[in-house]
Every structure is written in structure tokens, then in C-alpha cells.
Amino acid sequence: MSDWDTEKHKIIKINLDEKTVIRRSPEVEHERSVAIYDLLDMNRFRPVGEFADSGPFKLDLSIEDGSRLVFTLGTEEVEELTWINLPLSPFRRLIKDYFQICESYYDAIKRLSPSQIETIDMARRGLHNEGSDLLRERLDGKLEMDLQTARRLFTLICVLHIRA
């Protein structure tokens, strides 16, 4: 990843297709906002192959038919440059576990000691890292990104997965 062009190999705009989302908790909405802010502030991202140097990129994330995660890439000049489909099934258990530990974490903040909160937060970060690693693994040969970009995208995939 040492040959990254910081002007081209990045996301400059992100859109979540939220047509299936009815409502979210304030905590989830906060996580979404922070992930988008941090992602746009700093990221390393590029498709593998012919479009690698076409950036910077616009990214639309969506879930189609409840079973496929779709990355649609564009640029300032080209609305839809390419898209990548991933089955959502490998992520489902991890997303479910991540939501459960996040709920425990938000509850713990209100009533548990700092050491108990830290233990839950460590588990939460571990699942988050596992999700980021899975995302990078599933996108291998299609998209390249650094760990922090993958972490933020995993957060946004989780947010998209929420159905009220």
C-alpha cells in the first residue's frame, strides 16, 4: 500500500441508500455520523484494476434484496464507474453479535464501573476489527483499503443492516 496517491485513492463523498431504514436509536445515528465524518476526513481506498487511478471516488452503499451488499463507485466526472456486489450472508452473524455488544456497551455506560465498561468495549472493538478484516478479505481483488477505512465502512454496513 506504499504506492497510494493521496489525491486519487480516497473517498470524497459517501451515500447510504437508506430506503429500507425506518428509524434508528440516537446511539446508532451518532455512530453513523462519526463514521462518515471520520471516513471523509481520512481514508485510503481504490478499486483494483482499470479504475484504480480514476479517483477520487464517490461511494454509494446499499443493500439489495436483503441479501447483497452493493458498492457503487463513481467520480466527479462519471456518475457510475463500476459496482461491486458482495453476499451479505458472511456478515450476518458478525453484525448481529456487534449490535448485541453495542447495546451492552451503551447500557453499561449508564450503570457500570469504568473497568466493566472497558471490558465490554474491548469485546466491541474486537468484533469491529473482525468485521473490518472480513470486509477486506471479501473485497480482496476488487477493492483495496486500509484498516481504518474498512472499520468505518463496516460501521456503515451495520447501520444499513438495521431494520426497524
Report on the structure:
- By secondary structure, the protein is α+β, with helices and mostly antiparallel strands.
- It is built from four helices and six strands, in the order E-H-E-E-E-E-H-H-E-H.
- The strands form two sheets. A four-stranded mixed sheet has the order 1-3-4-5.
- The longest helix is centred in the last third of the chain and has 25 residues.
- It is globular and about 50 Å long.
- The chain starts with 10 loop residues before the first strand and ends with a helix.
The number of strands is 6
Strand line-up across the major sheet: 1-3-4-5
Summarize the main sheet. 4 strands, mixed
Global shape: globular
Helix content: 40-55%
The string of secondary-structure elements, in order, is EHEEEEHHEH
Global Rg: 16 Å
**Unreliably modeled segments:** none
Overall SS class:
alpha+beta
Q: Could you give the distance between the termini?
A: 39 Å
Q: How many H/I helical runs? A: 4
Q: In percent, how much strand structure appears in the residues?
A: 15-25%
Question: How would you state the average pLDDT, rounded?
Answer: 89
